[in-house]
Amino acid sequence: MSAVATPVSPMLVRLAAEKATGALLRDHGTLYLVDGRVVHAESPAAPGVDVLLTTGGRLPRENWDEAVDRAGAHRAVGRFLVDSGRLQDGELEICHLGAVFDAAFFALSPTSGPTRFRYGVGHWFGTVRPVSAEAVERETVRRRELLDAVWPYPAVDTAPVVPRPAAPGQTVGSRQRALLAAADGERTPAELARLLGRPAFHTLLDVRRLAAAGLVETPLTPEPEPVPPAPALLPVPPVPDPDIALLRRLRDALEAHL
User: Fold this and answer.
1) pLDDT at residue 3, rounded to an integer
2) Do residues 99 and 52 lie in contact, with contact meaning Cβ atoms separated by under 8 Å?
3) Are the C-beta atoms of residues 157 and 143 closer than 8 Å to each other?
4) What is the pLDDT of residue 228?
5) Which pLDDT score is estimated for 233?
6) HEC per residue, 129-152
7) pTM
8) How would you label 64-73 residue by residue, b for 16+ Cβ within 10 Å and e otherwise?
């Protein structure tokens, strides 16, 4: 696998090269691999494929629950949805890929915690379309760069979204209008994504665009911690100015020759 210039997750790169199967656990989510390829991802920061399908209106909740009950133990929920006629192959693939890239973006975010891999662990949803680890890393980097290009202040990503009045003549698209209508000053972008049944990354992108347009509040950057005062130093005897000392020596030398 040709690696990204600076790997987002060196362990993911290594597992892909090993063609490993299992679950890669990180602080902000989990990636599931089969033969070194990513087949599923989940993160507390991103709505799952169930939310995208049911809240988005494509699948009744009872159909989803039935699929989990009947096929979850066999790790074949996705396959059941297609075989039972609930979804077409193509729409399941598109929705699932969107959920995988969405959750992977957060799961692969910078972390100071441990990264672990549990060999042999699979996900109950099953495999729909495996994605190379290289593609997941590349897409994660692209998304980070896109967010920073729109509005390079990530504090808006986790703070409650607080709408601001539009300037005269200022307009937004229908998707952003729906987001602003749902923003009550308390819901974060992740909560709004779940409420609206949208991918979390796309919601972050809309929030940053709204921040750049002045249509949502931008949280203040925390004040830096005060620097402790330097310890008191012992008084140092005054040092004569070097020019004055030189003049005094010249004077003494002249007086000695008089």
Assistant:
1) 47
2) yes
3) no
4) 63
5) 52
6) CCEEHHHHHHHHHHHHHHHHHHCC
7) 0.81
8) bebbeeebee
68, two tokens:
């989990």
Given a cut of 50, the residues of the chain with pLDDT beneath it are 1-3, 223, 236, 239-242, 257-258
- Give the per-residue pLDDT at 173: 92
d(CA 128, CA 79): 8
Residues 117, 77, 100: CA angle, nearest 5 degrees: 50
- The one-letter amino acid code at 51 reads V
Which tokens go with 104? 């992977």
Chain position carrying tokens 């989940």: 42
Q: What is the pLDDT of residue 252?
A: 59
Q: How far apart, in whole angstroms, are the C-alpha atoms of residue 130 and residue 258?
A: 102
What span, in angstroms and rounded, lies between the C-alpha atoms of 86 and 104? 26
Tokens of 71: 């096929």
**Dihedrals phi, psi of 40, to nearest 5 degrees:** -165, 160
Alpha helices (runs of H) in 25-124, residue ranges in sequence order:
49-54, 61-71, 77-83, 89-107
